[in-house]
Amino acid sequence: MGVAEDDAEFEIVDEPKAGLFGRTRGEARVRARVRPATPRGKTERRPRKQAAEKSSEPREQRPRKENAERGERRERAPREDRPQREPREPREKIEVDPEEVGKAAAEFLNGLVTAFGTTGSVKVSRVEEEIEVLVDGSELGLMVGPGGATLLAIQDLTRVASQRRLGDQDTRLRIDIAGYRERRREALSRFAQKVATEVKETGSPRMLEPMSSADRKIVHDTLMEFEGVVTRSEGEDPRRRVVVEPAE
């Protein structure tokens, strides 16, 4: 078979049977095969119990330095030990001559006229408790703007510039450019009277277009003495408007 005797394995399947006179009957049957190789033993491993016992040993607990430091940081001084902020002293009210306010406004407006690239003269007058500054000249439409929007912005800028320079907070300042405010007042007064007449005749209220606070005041003042109608404002800026309605 080409196999060493030690590597072969034999097994007798059938033996010959004995016959008369010592003779045998039949043939013997033998099964032969190559002995299978013995498998290698598995590598011995450390018992799990030992590993479990090792892992079950309590670890030495060490305090975390980080947590200790955090705890120290959280400890703050009591509120009683904190320095108290001193209350601010109220600003001392400065009394300024209204004429000085007018001069500061005129100086600012003269510079603004030059910045707009045009020419004009500035005149200051006092009407009761209000300082009026009139700018007159040609080609001043750019300083008025559509619907007087630029004029209102210039009035606010002039007021702020005068307040910062003099510290005045009380003087009322009114700016007019190229007679726009006066023309606007006259036009609004005529329009308000016309609307009031229609409301009185028809008995139906009339809501006007949105107006600035200055224009609404003109309408209210004009119709204050107009018999048969009353006025009120409703809505929110910039859509606030005047309503003219029949008096009860």
From TrEMBL:
Residues 1-100 are annotated as: Disordered. SUPFAM superfamilies: R3H domain. GO terms for molecular function: RNA binding. Residues 50-100 have a biased composition (Basic and acidic residues). One of its GO terms (biological process) is regulation of cell shape. Residues 182-248 form the R3H domain. Signal peptide: none annotated. SMART domains: R3H. Pfam families: R3H. InterPro entries: Jag_N_dom_sf, KH_dom-like_a/b, KhpB, R3H_dom, R3H_dom_sf, R3H_KhpB. Residues 1-13 have a biased composition (Acidic residues). This is Unannotated protein. It comes from freshwater metagenome. The lineage of its organism: unclassified sequences, metagenomes, ecological metagenomes.
